[in-house]
Amino acid sequence: QVQLVESGGGLVQAGESLRLSCVASGSSRFIFRLSTVGWYRQAPGKQRELVAAITRGDSTNYAESVKGRFTISRDNAKNTVHLQMNSLKPEDTAVYYCHFQLNWGQGTQVTVSS
User: Fold this and answer.
1) For residue 17, which of 39, 76, 87, 91 sits 20 to 30 Å off, Cα-Cα?
2) Torsion angle, CA of 43/73/37/31, rounded to 10 degrees?
3) pLDDT tens digits for range 51-61
């Protein structure tokens, strides 16, 4: 069993930054550090989309819309994956979810005002 808890969302103005964190806990949390972890987002009326992912070897990939602005990283000692979001735009407004294997967090709201 693994639980994922996201944090760090909030309301910011365009151009500002936020740092999201996803912490894994539970009896199988060690699997987290051995897995590819992704950040997804879902805006109202839209499908959930992959924003960024990081492999167990720290390879990363990003959605075209966030390349150069977002950075995903992991701290295996803390079973944590971060998403640093810079130069935020109103179109980044969404609920952001952490995911690995079949596990999802509850999401954290990011709202960017223009």
Assistant:
1) 76
2) -150
3) 999 999 999 99
